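To make the argument concrete, we let one protein speak, a sequence paired with a row of structure tokens, as a model reads it:
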Amino acid sequence: MLREIFLLECLSALIIVQLLQTSSASHNNQCNSSSCGKIPIISYPFRLKEDPQHCGDSSYELVCENNTASLYLNSNKYHVQAIDYLKFTIRLVDAALKNDSCSFPQYSLSQYDFGNYEYPYSTYNLNKSKYYAELNWPITFMRCPYPVNSSPFLETSHCDNRFYASNASYSSTRRYTYVKVGHLNVSDVRDMCSIYLIVMTSWPFKDVNNISLSEIHGSLIYGFDLSWYAVKISYCKKNK
């Protein structure tokens, strides 16, 4: 009971602090909100690289290039699709993705990259019941030396084979690649197969067991959500 009271007090305190900071910045006209492309309001805790140093939090610095707001995670570039200041979430998409159903991220990024509370973002957020809820679906890519039947994975081999067919030096190589939306069981990974990519999406799938490759690509283009609020709550709980 005491723990719940502390968490509630911490939540209230953080909300009040943010409201005071926003109100103070607006009142003093020192930190007006910025904008970049499709993101009309960039304000605390976010800041643009060229904003005054006292504005925003440096841990949440964005860059505005070619009229597109972006940030870097693990040295990889992600475009900002939306910022929801009421839900304390930011939606991102891999900057390397193209409008092609065979275009996939080049680097993994999953909930396991955000396990440390000192990291400025989290893949969890507090729901209405004050419990942590996952913001994203994991998307896992698997590679096998042989075809896999009766698998929860969707085959993507034709995407890889387009590359090999156009490169004579690789023409004799045959790959079998697969993708799955949702959490993975150990039994899902077959012998001699390997997981080579894990990414995320916050797209609201109706049925992850009945989706097409184009839907998966569309979900990647939609992006994934990260929370900056859950990190602050975790810090409060750790330091109570």
Q: What stands out?
A: Residues 2-28 form the longest helix (27 residues). DSSP finds four helices and 14 strands in the chain.
